Amino acid sequence: MDQSIEPLLDDEQVASTLKVSVETLAAWRHTGRVQLPYVRIGGRIVRYKKSDVLALIDAGHQSAAEGV
């Protein structure tokens, strides 16, 4: 059994990484405008996998390169 568990990031950490506000992250979750997977813990706590945040960043770089 794999004992390594990817650490989860909170809203503040993700917002800082993506240079957006915590409110923007909440709007993305609510509207589905940006596909950033998240986990709800206990119904209220929201966390993100670092790999999903990095994948979102990578997807943005690919889209920008394709538009050039």
- What is the terminal-to-terminal distance? 45 Å
Per CATH, the architecture is Orthogonal Bundle
Number of helices: 3
Q: Could you tell me the number of beta strands?
A: 3
Q: Which shape, going by the Cα principal axes?
A: globular
User: What is the number of independent domains?
Assistant: 1
Structural class: alpha+beta
Provide the β-strand percentage band. Answer: 5-15%
Q: Biggest β-sheet: count, sense, barrel?
A: 3 strands, antiparallel
Mean pLDDT, as a whole number?
87
Give the SSE layout.
Elements: E1 8-9, H1 11-18, H2 22-31, E2 39-41, E3 45-49, H3 50-67
Structure description:
The protein has 68 residues and is α+β, with helices and mostly antiparallel strands. The protein has one domain: Multidrug-efflux Transporter Regulator, Chain: A, Domain 2 (Orthogonal Bundle). Helix content is 53%, strand content 15%. Strands 1-3-2 form a 3-stranded antiparallel beta sheet. The radius of gyration is 13 Å and the shape is globular. The mean pLDDT is 87.
Main attributes of the structure:
single chain; about 70 residues; alpha+beta; Multidrug-efflux Transporter Regulator, Chain: A, Domain 2; three-stranded antiparallel β-sheet; 3 helices; 3 strands; about 55% helix
Offer a quick outline of the entry.
The protein has helices at residues 11-18, 22-31, 50-67, and strands spanning 8-9, 39-41, 45-49. It has three helices and three strands.
